[in-house]
């Protein structure tokens, strides 16, 4: 990508003013600033969560015995399902929300 000089930036600013109007530009700038702040805080939280997960795993490994004793496998034991990924949890929540909306709409129709 080439470097933008002063003339290019002025043309871009002129186009923005023509498209959105001078009154809307400050609102848009505030909205973009808020969005960036929210995005940065969320990514910081994700990094903190990742660091917490790594420290917990490291502590668990340090506390684990040096030579664990093998346990005989029993076919009657039921293994727990693996934890759901964030996407799967989000999908399930969306399905629940859709069901709740549908039931609320039916209740409104009955009333």
UniProtKB/TrEMBL annotation:
Membrane topology field: Single-pass membrane protein
Gene3D superfamilies: 1.20.5.3310
Region of interest: Disordered: 45-111
Biased amino acid composition, Basic and acidic residues: 88-98
Record has Transport as a keyword: yes
Keywords: Cell membrane, Membrane, Protein transport, Translocation, Transmembrane, Transmembrane helix, Transport
A biological process from GO: protein transport by the Tat complex
Biased composition (Low complexity): 57-66, 74-87, 99-111
InterPro entries, A to Z: TatA/B/E (IPR003369), TatA/E (IPR006312)
Keyword Transmembrane helix: yes
GO molecular function: protein transmembrane transporter activity
One Gene Ontology cellular component annotation held by this UniProt entry: TAT protein transport complex
Top-rank taxon: Bacteria
Location within or outside the cell: Cell membrane
Similarity section: Belongs to the TatA/E family.
Complex formation: The Tat system comprises two distinct complexes: a TatABC complex, containing multiple copies of TatA, TatB and TatC subunits, and a separate TatA complex, containing only TatA subunits. Substrates initially bind to the TatABC complex, which probably triggers association of the separate TatA complex to form the active translocon.
Role noted for this protein: Part of the twin-arginine translocation (Tat) system that transports large folded proteins containing a characteristic twin-arginine motif in their signal peptide across membranes. TatA could form the protein-conducting channel of the Tat system.
NCBIfam families recorded: PRK00575.1, tatAE
Protein's name in the database: Sec-independent protein translocase protein TatA
């Amino acid at each position: 990508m080439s470097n933008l000089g002063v003339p290019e930036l002025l043309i871009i600013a002129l186009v923005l003013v023509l498209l959105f109007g001078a009154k809307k530009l400050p609102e848009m700038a505030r909205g973009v600033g808020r969005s960036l702040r929210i995005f940065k805080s969320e990514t910081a939280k994700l990094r903190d969560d990742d660091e917490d997960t790594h420290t917990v795993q490291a502590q668990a490994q340090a506390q684990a015995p040096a030579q664990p004793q093998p346990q005989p496998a029993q076919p009657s034991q039921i293994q727990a399902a693996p934890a759901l990924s964030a996407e799967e949890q989000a999908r399930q929540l969306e399905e629940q929300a859709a069901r709740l909306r549908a039931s609320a709409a039916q209740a409104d129709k009955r009333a």
